[in-house]
Amino acid sequence: MKMKLSFPHTVDQWFKNILERPALAVTVSVLWLIVIGWIAYGWNLGNIGLVDETEPLFAEASRQMFVTGDWITPFFDNETRFDKPALIYWCQAIAYAIIGVNEWAVRLPSALAAMGVVGLAFYTVHWSLSRQDELEQVSRPVRRYLTAALAATIMALTPEMIAWGRIGVSDMLLTGCIASALLCFFLGYAGHGGIRGKSSSSAFPNKWYLACYVLIAGAILTKGPVGIVLPGIIIGAFVLYQGKLREVWQEMRPLMGMLIILVLSVPWYALVIWRNGWTYINSFFGYHNLERFTEVVNGHSAPWYFYFLVVLLGFAPYSVYLPAAMIKLKFWQRSHWRSQERSQQLGLFVCIWFLGVFGFFTIAVTKLPSYVLPLMPAAAILVALLWSDLIPDPDTQKRSPAPASFFWSAWVNVVFLSAVAVGLFQLSKLVGYDPAAPNLYQLIQQLGLPITGGMIWLFCAIIIAAFIITRRWPWIISANLLGFIAFFIVVLMPALLVMDQQRQLPLRELSATIVQVQQPNEELVMLGFKKPSVVFYSHKHVTYIPSSQEVVDHIHKQNTKPPKASSLLLLAEQDRFVHMGLQPEDYQLITSKGAYYLIRVPVKKIKNEKLDISYSLPSEKISN
Questions:
Q1: Residue 611 region, left (φ>0) first, then alpha (ψ -120 to 50), else beta?
Q2: Beta bridge partners of 591
Q3: CA nearest to 151, candidates 191, 124, 181, 184
Q4: How far apart are CA 240 and CA 99, in angstroms?
Q5: Any idea what DSSP says for residue 610?
């Protein structure tokens, strides 16, 4: 039989020809996920040095775990580090064993966690829409695949997801565990017993519920009780709203689930408490969990509307469509949602997921931008579902009319991007002086990055306005995505490389010098600031001291303890030496890099006298 080949005359028909062939559709989908994952999380991942202050703390604790073989108690610079549980350290230490101790290994767990949840979100959205098509007895492969791809792409190309997916701290690993656990719950919930859930005689929950429990255990090992509290609140609110508590309780086998969670997560906590006792309990459970929720910790306070701004900017430029997405769902119509088949309830579930995380951390007293990272996957799915009805059928070219809320959101999109463009044009007036990198913003301006970025977003705003006028709704989200990709590649990545050269490269070079010049028993002191990256790159112990007078007092105390050293290495900004009473002839300048000076000071040159330190800098504050 001869096959007649026909060439599609439209993009929609081209998509249809691809997506109606299952094997080809899966191949294209996987390739697309790999491409956006690499752009967002793999490209130049290890070509930028560790960013002070937090990232090197994780990297060095993992390195010490890898070197010493102590997989229970995390240490940083010879002191216990109880800020976070062990899973992130284990992942980074395993990466060290595979690819070496470097920036790639430090960030690989975060990047893989981000890619993993993006891929699972694609599968969940596609599966949910496929089940809906079965119920309605229609075949809409273009809508299924494009909506799933849109959800995954928005999720990957989101400022907050990119920021935390490219840095070696625990936040993205926590988000990966929590978000994946919630997606697995929905897959287990919607697929239980076919289209309409029915009870099972098995003592075990289905495979998706089992995966949910395992991932919750991973979240607990990543950041503690919040790893079970957040999923518990979201799942509980969802099933209560649906009036299916008893039904879902029977399906999930929660007692078996709790046993799985305890078996996987409790042993490490038991071992670390057995080894460190109340020191660990008070530090981790008391300070880093209870106090962070009920009190302001490390000065991280913010007004009640803080997370509105975080979501607006961290989920930009798609954040302007979140209100329209929620209005479209009409989540307040409980009777409507209770009458829907389970596979049709994905929108309601991610809406409760978004509001649950947002509300929980809004109530918490300590506030940080990274806390609401777990709601970003839900936000991406919400926006993708908003657009799903606007995707035309390739055969009939029919699509649902755009609701009024979408129309006005699109114009807000134009205004928002225009404001971002103006902000970039005026960047030099908006940013302040950075003493750690005095030439940073001047170099960024010389490269023309703010102007280029402003032009990208201004052009996007104009294009979107044209699409609104001509009612080409599906192309609006494409303009946002393409604009973000262009901004990320042409502006943001070069800016990050410049920032690394100006802020972190001097510290890496100083660390290499320290390894070469430090003498036996010679102490390394960092005065006035805390840069843990020096510990990671030099593998040397660093004493952090906030003020010049405290350096003098410290040296006096050290001189009474054997073994005595004749000198010390001091890393500081140049004006600090004056406050110590040091003249140029009193010390040896070893090298200077950027704003930092490394000197050797003979101990006899430093007298134990009270200094007149009437001048101080904000950098004298050392954050823990």
A1: beta
A2: 598
A3: 124
A4: 47
A5: -
Alpha-carbon distance of 196 to 192, in angstroms, equals: 7
Render the burial of 140-162: b for 16+ CB within 10 Å, e for the rest. bbbbbbbbbbbbbbbbbbbbbbb
- Asked if residue 569 lies in contact with residue 517, where contact means CB atoms within 8 angstroms, the answer is yes
| 93 Cβ contact partners less than 8 Å away, ≥ 6 residues apart | 62, 63, 65, 66, 71
593: β partners: 596
Q: Which residues of 112-132 are buried (b: 16+ CB within 10 A; e: fewer)?
A: bbbbbbbbbbbebbbbbbbbb
Q: Which helix (H) or strand (E) holds 570?
A: strand 567-572
pLDDT digits (tens, 9 = 90+) for 350-373: 999 999 999 998 988 778 888 999
Give phi and psi for 181, each to the nearest 5. -60, -40
194: left (phi over 0), alpha (psi -120 to 50) or beta: left
What are the residues whose beta carbons fall under 8 Å from the beta carbon of 155, sequence distance 6 or more? 117, 118, 121, 161, 376, 377, 380, 381
CA dist., res. 49 & res. 500, Å (int): 6
pLDDT given at position 89 = 95
CA angle 106-123-44, nearest 5°? 30
Residue 221 vs residue 9, higher pLDDT: 221
Listed residue (148, 132, 264, 144) closest to 211, CA to CA: 264
The CB density around residue 48, as the number of other CB atoms within 10 Å, is: 19
In angstroms, the CA 387 to CA 160 distance is: 21
8 Å CB contact between 382 and 351: yes
Count of residues for the chain? 624
Q: Return d(Cα 544, Cα 78) in angstroms, integer.
A: 13
Question: DSSP letters along 348-413, please?
Answer: HHHHHHHHHHHHHHHHSSS--GGGGGGGHHHHHHHHHHHHHTTSPPTTT---PPPPHHHHHHHHHH
In whole angstroms, give the CA distance from residue 596 to residue 523: 17
pLDDT computed for residue 78 by the predictor: 84
- Identify the CA nearest to 473 among candidates 551, 366, 388, 591: 388
Calculate the alpha carbon distances from 127 to 48, 157, 252, 305, 399 in Å.
38, 22, 20, 36, 21
Q: How far apart are CA 139 and CA 200, in angstroms?
A: 30
- Cα radius of gyration rounded to whole Å, the chain: 27
Q: What is the DSSP string of 82-126?
A: -SS-SHHHHHHHHHHHHH-SSHHHHHHHHHHHHHHHHHHHHHHHH
pLDDT tens sequence across 6-64: 434 455 555 566 666 777 778 888 999 999 999 999 999 999 999 988 999 999 999 99
